[in-house]
Amino acid sequence: MLRESSQTLIIESDFADEEFTSEWCNLQPNEVKVLVMNLREKKRSLPPFMKKMNKLKVLTITNYDVNRTELENLELLDYLSDLKRIRLEKVSIPFLSKTGVPLKNLNKFSFFMCNVNEAFKNSTIKVSDVLPNLKEMNIDYCDMEELPDGLSDTVSLKKLSITNCHRLSKLPKEIGKLVKLESLRLTSCTKLEELPDTITSLHKLKFLDISDCVSLSMLAENIGELGSLERLNCRGCSRLSELPYSVTELESLRVIVCDEERAALWEPVISMFSDLKLEVVLTDFKLDPLL
């Protein structure tokens, strides 16, 4: 089933490939600005007519089946030079390749409950080459073991959110190159054991969330160099038993969020600042329903 308004096209998965092709002949793809694909198949290729969507700005692909849908024909993204946002939900990406021009207008890319690990590990492309102006990246509930190649070279990035990626055990040292980064969220990355020392090069970072990183046992020794940091969330970091002295140098810090057990660590720091607030929250150990 295909539904189209003047600028938005919604594709449902209850049609065969031959119906797909014939129905598309009546469309004007060069006028579509928003494309929504709702899937339920094991495999689905991107439609060939996407080549003509030269005004497309938003692409959302969501799988409603229990199992991940394997996406094919991803090279068609090369033709979408005006694209600004991509969101992929519950899909599997077998590999990434690039043959066309960089998507210079893309500023937000989101993965939710996707199988991306093999694609990231075996990719022949660098994120910084194909998405040179990316400002926000969200990777949530994915099987990622390491950041995609070249992400740390994407110096335009301002927001990076990696949550509930339970296979991620470390961040690359190169993350310190993200000099424009203002928000870093690492919530519930349960195998993440440490933050690289180079994180202290993120001088524009205002928000750092390491909540529920239960394997994290220490903060970066020179974390005090994060001169713009305003809010730090370390709730549920059950292995965090001491703080580096440099936390006393976080002059812009206004809010610390932690659990009751970690509150005692921060109380001496709080006493050194007149405008620093400690928010103590209860730790909830309920199982995540999405796991």
From TrEMBL:
<keyword id="KW-0611">Plant defense</keyword>
<feature type="domain" description="Disease resistance R13L4/SHOC-2-like LRR">
    <location>
        <begin position="152"/>
        <end position="253"/>
    </location>
</feature>
<dbReference type="Pfam" id="PF23598">
    <property type="entry name" value="LRR_14"/>
</dbReference>
<dbReference type="GO" id="GO:0006952">
    <property type="term" value="P:defense response"/>
</dbReference>
<dbReference type="InterPro" id="IPR055414">
    <property type="entry name" value="LRR_R13L4/SHOC2-like"/>
</dbReference>
<protein>
    <recommendedName>
        <fullName>Disease resistance R13L4/SHOC-2-like LRR domain-containing protein</fullName>
    </recommendedName>
</protein>
<dbReference type="InterPro" id="IPR032675">
    <property type="entry name" value="LRR_dom_sf"/>
</dbReference>
<keyword id="KW-0677">Repeat</keyword>
